[in-house]
Design a protein that fits this description.
This protein is of the alpha+beta class. 33% of the residues lie in helices and 21% in strands. It has 16 helices and 20 strands.
Length: 509
């Protein structure tokens, strides 16, 4: 067995016949390894107490929990390089982690090992307004990039719903999107360069400020690679001018079919909104109870339609969108008259997940992609799938590009519900693929969807991807156990069916 290799065991604590809790039994990392880390990171940069490690047992994909053996908090690229070189020396798996807002388990330590968190890599290093470029460390929060250049009439366009917390490094790893990607594109359309530590500790610079670099598009390869090709420590991004004018509509419908028909008709008419978002009745009620925005509780769907650009002609575009909505039976169309009103309209979309959190349940948020024309039938089937599994579901999603976000609510203390939410999620993803869609639009594959990859890709396809990964990550220490199908189903782990059966017997299998 190579240095540092170890097995992890778990003790099962039965709280009630349907409630289990996992307590890790850690085998310590090699003492010399920890001493060498502590020598240059200090106590504040190396976390090993079990109480602290509980905060790192998962990202925002809660059904898959694994405790890391330690967490490091480097302050710069050189420290990241030294950490990774030590991991290679001792054979310790390492896992890049940003803010932990990822929704597919990409930052979860599925094989234990060392989490390398970018929390302290949080500085904007350079702002080049004339060339519309900015370089920021990977741990810089997304919204801070836009705030730093707002006075210059610029912003960083990708805007995930978690942009007040998520980091540009995590966005780069997952190729994050957001409501305004319908017009402006996802992260890969806005990253021109990265500084990256390879899985052997070597520091490389890919791309830069230039619009394009000759040769292979290695930056494009890294963006969306989910931390399996190395750890990005700095990102150079393209800054986009703020639009001259914005028009924001909130359109209320009695039925979801009316709303989805409006989405397709707007795009078919040649109108390209900056954002075209849909919120269903479950989310409407949760947001109204949380924020008291004045939404009708009996509405089945709400669309947020935002158009931006030059002042000239924008009112005409807005009137076209309004007319299409009214032809499809819109009950009411509200238009924001001030920036404050616009912010309030967006509050229901941006803080929907927080509103759901008030329900006292855990949540799994999916992001399968489907053709826009399939929205009505898929939404009906999503509701049917949730009902079959005894789960509540709310939909708030990027309707303009068919990127669904069904939010399945469950009690993670109940292993049967954990099993149900995972099975229902797989059924929803299979549905998306079957209607001509994809597994993910912006959340990544991680551990959540890796065993669904054969639904989209042949063995030859997957083998080629694995070979490409091996060019960078030969020893598979860098974020192992992600993206590619495993020998066993990804949900047959601590919370899977074996654990559910064990809950009834009082033993772990």
């Amino acid at each position: 067995m190579r240095a540092g290799a170890r097995q992890k065991s778990y003790q099962l604590l039965i709280i009630s016949p349907i409630s289990i809790s996992m307590t890790p039994t850690h085998n310590k990392l090699p003492d010399n390894f920890l001493k060498e880390l502590n020598a240059f990171l200090g106590e504040a940069g190396l976390l090993t107490s079990e109480a602290v490690l509980r905060a790192y047992d998962c990202d925002a994909y809660a059904p898959e929990k694994h405790f890391p053996d330690a967490v490091t908090l480097p302050k710069n690229t050189d420290e990241v390089s030294r950490i990774i070189k030590l991991c290679c020396q001792y054979g310790i798996p390492f896992i890049p982690r940003g803010a932990g807002t990822g929704l597919s388990g990409g930052a979860t330590a599925v094989k234990g090992g060392l989490v390398i968190a970018t929390t302290r890599l949080n500085q904007i290093l350079e702002t080049d307004v004339p060339n519309r470029r900015m370089t920021a460390q990977a741990g810089c929060v997304n919204i801070y990039l836009s705030k730093a250049v707002k006075a210059d009439g610029l912003h960083y366009a990708p805007d995930p719903s978690s942009q007040g917390a998520c980091t540009v490094g995590g966005n780069t790893a997952e190729n994050a999107g957001g409501p305004h990607t319908l017009k402006y594109g996802v992260t890969t359309n806005h990253v021109t360069g990265v500084t990256m530590v390879l899985p052997d500790g070597e520091i490389v610079r890919l791309g830069g400020k230039a619009e394009d670099s000759p040769g292979y598009d290695l930056v494009g390869l890294v963006v969306g690679s989910e931390g399996t090709l190395g750890l990005v420590t700095e990102v150079t991004v393209r800054l986009t001018p703020l639009p001259q004018s914005v028009r924001t509509l909130l359109v209320i419908f009695d039925t979801a079919d009316q709303a989805t028909a409006t989405v397709s008709d707007i795009i078919a008419a040649g109108v390209l909104p900056a954002a075209l978002e849909m919120v269903d009745t479950f989310i409407i009620k949760a947001c109204e109870e949380a924020f008291h925005l004045g939404f009708p509780m009996d509405a089945e769907a709400v669309l947020i339609i935002e158009l931006d650009g030059l002042e000239a002609g924008l009112d005409e575009e807005t009137d076209r969108a309004r007319s299409i909505a009214e032809k499809n039976g819109a009950r009411e169309v509200r238009q924001a008259k001030t920036e404050l009103e616009r912010a309030l309209l967006w509050k229901a979309r941006k803080q929907a997940f927080g509103a759901l959190g008030r329900l006292g349940l855990s949540m799994v948020t999916h992001d399968g992609v489907i053709p826009r024309t399939k929205l009505p039938e898929v939404l009906r089937e999503v509701s049917a799938i949730a009902a079959r599994h005894g789960l509540k579901v709310g939909n708030v999603f990027h309707a303009g590009d068919g990127n669904l976000h069904p939010n399945l609510m469950y009690d993670e203390r109940n292993p049967l519900q954990v099993q149900s939410v995972i099975e229902a999620g797989h059924e929803i993803l299979k549905l998306c693929v079957d209607v001509g869609g994809s597994l993910t639009g912006e959340h990544g594959i991680g551990v959540e969807k890796m065993d669904a990859m054969p639904w989209l890709f042949s063995e030859i396809d997957l083998d080629l991807m694995k070979k490409l990964k091996l060019v960078f990550n030969q020893n598979d220490l860098c974020n192992p156990g992600k993206i590619f199908p495993s020998a066993k189903g990804c949900w047959e782990t601590e919370h899977g069916p074996n654990m559910v059966r064990a809950a009834g017997r009082g033993v772990a299998t």
